[in-house]
Amino acid sequence: MAKAVFHKHQRVFVHPVGTWALVEKVKPQWVRDVEEPVKVFYDCGLGRDFQAHELAVEDGGGENTGNNWRVLRAANKWQTPEECAHHPFPGTYPVVVTDQQNWGGWRTPGAEYDRDPHRIETQARLIAQAPRLLALAEAVARAVADNPECGPELVGLARQMSETVRTVRAKPGEAGSAASQAAE
Questions:
Q1: Nearest Cα to 91, choosing from 110, 107, 109?
Q2: What's residue 172's pLDDT?
Q3: Whole-angstrom Cα distance, residue 155 to residue 150?
Q4: What DSSP designation does 66 have?
Q5: Are 115 and 167 in the same domain?
Q6: Least CB-packed of 3, 127, 156, 167 within 10 Å?
Q7: CA neighbours within 13 Å on the CB side: how many for 12?
Q8: d(CA 173, CA 22)
Q9: Residue 12, CA distances (Å) to 28, 62, 64, 103, 113 in order
Q10: Residue of 98 and 59 predicted with greater confidence
Q11: Is the residue at 4 inside a domain?
Q12: Whole-structure pTM over 0.70, yes or no?
């Protein structure tokens, strides 16, 4: 028996096509003398019906955003490995990707990488770990807030962590965002 996973007008990612679409119709497939549909298909206006395993729901607000952040190596198109033998990984440079399809993220210009490759490698690792560090800061701040017997040093650190988390989570233009703090 099947139940509808998505509803009409819900925005979904259609994996076989590789695009976002709205569910236009929910089409249950019924069998006589059975109380629930056997299968449920979804018409997204893309020429054929899709099953639930072919669709993915829209990310609901940035939770678990760091699960896919990782450092990949991209080939250096401007220099041969011999020309950049002083780099930590000759012939490549780091790229931090933040998406399952290896899109989005952070890249550095070749000239900047060539100037100080060790600093850029450190930045790439730090950026890739940023979501985990943010979650850790939130957990520590919550733990200190829940435990009133913490010392003043730990309370001060937790306050700084809370302010950092608030700055990162703030939307542009809100109080506490990086843009509004820079304007002050």
A1: 110
A2: 82
A3: 7
A4: G
A5: yes
A6: 3
A7: 27
A8: 30
A9: 18, 16, 18, 19, 38
A10: 98
A11: no
A12: no
